[in-house]
What does this fold into?
Amino acid sequence: MGFKIDRIRLRQISMPLVHFFETSFGRTTERHMILAEVSSSGVSGWGEVTAGENPFYNEEWTESAWRIARDYAGPRLLGHPFENAAQVGERTAHIRGHNMARGALETACWDLEARLHNRPLYQQIGGGARKEIPCGVSIGIQNSVPELLKKIQTEIEAGYQRIKMKIKPGWDVEVIREVRREFPSIKLMADANSAYTLADADHLQKLDEFFLMMIEQPLAHDEIIDHAAIQARLQTPICLDECIRSAHQAEQAIRMRACGIINIKLGRVGGFAEARRVHDVAQKAGVPVWCGGMLEAGIGRAHNIALSTLENFVLPGDVSASKRYWKRDIIDPWVEVSPRGTIGVNDAPGFGYNLDMEFLDSVTVRREELH
Ligand code: OSB
Ligand code: MG
It folds into this structure.
């Protein structure tokens, strides 16, 4: 069943985080995100832009995504006869970069397609390998080590299956040593968000003694070759995040042995079709993947859950409970995590949750409609 998009509604919402989230590139206290609603003859699908508030994780931020979605990507989709949602990404592939803005519209079209077929999104994308997905948490840089230890304790008690901690120069080896002293056997990993260079190789080698599951994106956001060089010097597997924006880059990184694991983020690769291709490339090479997070509100979170039901998402992801981020989420029910650290996958049509429209309207700060 094909479809034509006859209306696109963009809205920007603003919500404070329950707790600030700090990475090597900065601290976030309030999220400003864009939601996209694509409609075809009265049926709507929803997507979420996963860009940050500043162009620090990658080149995108809320404002650039608004302009790309409104002026470039949105108009390319309106009125075009799509045979299926897998074709949507190609319509905006002439835009250089800006995968998160493109991805919000692409994922919205998959949600729309799922609803037109009256089936859950996870089935529409070809997932369904598991009925509940394994969850980890990403814990930001804290003001002190005791605060970090306390946060880890809380999340382990809640049942989360692995802990990811953010690192940067000055908050790395000695902090991880303290964490390991307190929690000798938890599944632990570190994410540097590109805070180091090859000149730090000797320093990063010290991390091998802590039996980390992986070290995520230690080097530059666009540097696959240097990651191959650092991987050759480390026993701990490298996991690439920022570097992998396409299946082709995943193929190159794997071929060069730049990573042993890949973090897949829908926005970073431009949507479900490319995420699936990255997944397939990795699976063929025997490289496990997991679903990353971008501090999403309910729509993006629900999409991540659907993605995580593809076969090769075998490691716990950064997809966790709504209440870790929000005082109130925009979906109903909120995303909840079981005591064994899993999220159950819903069978309702589309992304599987209801939108809390009243609350959504109350946090909306800007709107635009495209015909
Ligand atoms: O590198 O995975 C990352 C958040 C913002 C930007 C980049 C990253 C992250 C996270 C948070 O680690 C994951 C989450 O809990 O949503
Ligand atoms: Mg990361």
About this structure: The first strand starts at residue 7 and ends at 23. The chain has two domains: 3-118+357-370, 124-344. Residues 99-116 form the longest helix (18 residues).
